[in-house]
Amino acid sequence: MAEVKVSDSEWEIMRVIWTQGDVTAQKVIDALADEMHWKDATVKTLLGRLVKKGMLSTTRDGKCFIYHPLVSEKETVKSATETLFAHICARKMGHALADIIERAVLSKEDVALLEQVLQEKTAVDEVACDCIPGQCECNDHCHASKA
Ligand SMILES: [Zn+2]
User: Could you tell me the pTM of the whole model?
Assistant: First the structure.
């Protein structure tokens, strides 16, 4: 899937559609307009943008448009985290993940899942830095050790 940037407001809309399935604009308005302090037109604009981005499709049912999700919640969350992690040095990934786990509220089941993932994880001796020189300290260290 091509990388699609989803705004905070668009996430709110997509979550309603992922949960409720095929919906009319009115259903999304009923779910979010009050809570988000959005006008009906705002919801319709956001729905239009999501159609343009290829995240929703529409079909006409009489006077109403029905919106259908074209991407799953799981793949969108995956793509968003990949985008986030693409911005950090591969060598900092471990610390970033540890920080996320430390701050997250997790159930016993979640912890068991994480333990299982870690147990099955094949570790390398050293993570290769994939940054452009100057974006992280890894390359400086290389120069220092060579000199
Ligand atoms: Zn690096």
Answer: 0.76
Distance between Cα 126 and ligand 1 center (Å): 12
- What does 27-89 look like in DSSP terms, one character per residue? HHHHHHHHHHT--HHHHHHHHHHHHHTTSEEEEEETTEEEEEESS-HHHHHHHHHHHHHTTS-
The pLDDT tens digits of the residues spanning 64-97 come to 899 999 999 999 999 998 888 888 999 999 999 9
Q: What is residue 70's predicted lDDT score, i.e. its pLDDT?
A: 96
The alpha carbon of 140 and the centre of ligand 1 are apart by a number of angstroms equal to 10
What's the 102 CA to ligand 1 centre distance in angstroms? 23
CATH architecture label of 8-69: Orthogonal Bundle (1.10)
